[in-house]
Amino acid sequence: MNDAVVWLTIFVLSVFVGIEVISKVSSTLHTPLMSGANAIHGIILLGAILVTGTTDSGLALAVGLVAIVLATVNMVGGFVVTDRMLQMFTRRKPKAPAGSTEGGAA
Amino acid sequence: MPVWVQLVYLACAVCFILALKGLSGPKTARTGNLVGAGAAVVGCVVPFLYLDLDHVPLMLAAIVLGTVGGVYGARKVQMTQMPQMVALFNGVGGGAAALVALLELEHMGSFTAGFDLAATAFTIVVGSVSFAGSLVTFAKLQELMTSRPVVFPGLPVVFGAALIAVLALSVLIVTDPSVGVGVLLALLGLAIGVLLVLPVGGADVPIVISLLNAFTGLTVAAGGYILGNTLLLVAGTLVGASGTFLTLLMARAMGRSVANILFGALKGGSTLGGGEASDRPVKSAGPEDVAIMLAYAERVIIVPGYGLAVAQAQHTLRELVDVLGERGIKVDYAIHPVAGRMPGHMNVLLAEAQVPYEQLKEMDDINGDFKDADVALVVGANDVVNPAAKTTPGAPIYGMPILNADEAKQVVFMKRSMRPGFAGIENELLFEPNTTLLFGDAKDSMGKLLNAVKSL
């Protein structure tokens, strides 16, 4: 099979998976989901490492290091900030709310 | 590439899928995020293990620097400033992808397949668009610049010219690759990013953040193709696809189309409201009067908005709701899907104040209840209860589903001033006879209101 076709296959299947896995998200979680997805594309750090680690020119090295710093901020900051947001959803006290008499569905 | 490396990348890709799946359910979200983070770390460690990389100490230093910066920003940011933080993180990711493609271009020549060169041009341009666009959204949300649409005559022409130039240079790079042309493409990408976001009004900026997030995802996917790395391809495509879908979901929640959000201001449609405060008469009252209205009601619905969170009044509000609850009054929070500055933002802000999840009602579940409510208490919100969304076809928010606060027997607005909401248009509801305004800083007024209710 042609290499390009293999790549195209992976791409097309990933598109469908990407849409399918988040299709049932409630609007409550839109913000953390966007933030988490944002952190995942920080994996460009891997690309930055591959390119920078194999270069031999000084200018390219400098540019590569900038790319590594930027990508790391995206990846690490993204996951930490998402975790901070989600922490707030799970920290809720289990005691029954005083204000509402009937428990609504989430 | 050794087989074990490819298998590790496959495992990481599966973890990213599980992470996104987890993030879309409230119970599994936190675990999902951690699974994603773990996979990202493993993926980035792998090249150090199987390749004989140069400059390892420098690269590690750069990673430490980025980690410190990222963790510092992520820990320090206020929950109210979350949208611009996500924009910033997204922007630097796009910038990194563009730089990676530029570096890779250096190794390419006329021997490189045309499709690879096209993918490189795509990565450079879209990565730069995402970088510059995200910085402008950051500036708008952080109020470093006006949050109103910025349009100048000839903007569509300049924008179109930039797009044509990008196409021309991309063709050039495919036929005769050179780093110089790549740098030009990056500069054009930056310009397009700025021009794309400038005409977007403040209230729509979150949609643009989501869209740019999807852009960065696709950029990373193209980068993966150039570098021959399946993990980058899968991860980037997942984010690109889910990000695009999420953008459409958000736009639908606001009753807008993405095209309208991006290019609506160019058509000069939004003439309503100059962002000026009106001097038309309104009915205002003191905390004691409002306390009586609330304390003798049977059903109260609270409409929280961004202003509540800015004033840090959500804890006092929760106390007030607890006190009202003890008096036997049924109180719920009506959460508009785009309350706050991003869909779901208000839920995060109220969860921070430990408001029980059960009291947070989504718009579709609560909208029918307003007509039975004695008081709708609108705290720091404006656009999400503005009837212009239903009645005024020219309004920028026309078509956005709103909370039917106007159907309540009494409406109380807690506002700092008569300044219009984020969308910059006046709210007719403020001038209705059954509307009462309680002016002042939300936290201050809320404290007074709480004491007044307690003393009744």
Automatic annotation (TrEMBL), chain A:
Location(s), subcellular: Cell inner membrane
Source organism superkingdom: Bacteria
Domain NAD(P) transhydrogenase alpha subunit C-terminal: 8-91
Keyword Membrane appears in the UniProt entry: yes
Protein's membrane topology: Multi-pass membrane protein
Reactions catalysed: NAD(+) + NADPH + H(+)(in) = NADH + NADP(+) + H(+)(out)
EC numbers for this chain: 7.1.1.1
Transmembrane as UniProt keyword: yes
Transmembrane segments: 6-23, 35-53, 59-82
One Gene Ontology cellular component annotation held by this UniProt entry: plasma membrane
GO BP: NADPH regeneration
Organism of provenance: Nocardioides guangzhouensis
Keyword terms, alphabetized: Cell inner membrane, Cell membrane, Membrane, NAD, NADP, Translocase, Transmembrane, Transmembrane helix
InterPro entries in alphabetical order: NADP_transhyd_a_C
MF terms (GO), sorted A to Z: NADP binding; proton-translocating NAD(P)+ transhydrogenase activity
Protein name from the UniProt record: proton-translocating NAD(P)(+) transhydrogenase
Pfam families: PNTB_4TM
Function: The transhydrogenation between NADH and NADP is coupled to respiration and ATP hydrolysis and functions as a proton pump across the membrane.
Automatic annotation (TrEMBL), chain B:
Ranges where the NADP transhydrogenase beta-like domain occurs: 6-451
UniProt family annotation: Belongs to the PNT beta subunit family.
Family matches, as Gene3D superfamilies: TPP-binding domain (3.40.50.1220)
UniProt KW NAD keyword: yes
Reactions catalysed, as given in the entry: NAD(+) + NADPH + H(+)(in) = NADH + NADP(+) + H(+)(out)
Transmembrane feature ranges: 6-24, 31-50, 56-74, 86-105, 117-138, 150-173, 179-198, 205-226, 232-251
UniProt keyword terms in alphabetical order: Cell inner membrane, Cell membrane, Membrane, NAD, NADP, Translocase, Transmembrane, Transmembrane helix
Protein known as: NAD(P) transhydrogenase subunit beta
Taxonomic superkingdom: Bacteria
The keyword NAD appears for this protein: yes
Localization in the cell: Cell inner membrane
Function: The transhydrogenation between NADH and NADP is coupled to respiration and ATP hydrolysis and functions as a proton pump across the membrane.
SUPFAM superfamilies: DHS-like NAD/FAD-binding domain
EC number of this enzyme: 7.1.1.1
Predominant cellular place of this UniProt entry's protein: membrane
GO function terms (MF aspect): NADP binding; proton-translocating NAD(P)+ transhydrogenase activity
Membrane topology field: Multi-pass membrane protein
One Gene Ontology CC term in the entry: plasma membrane
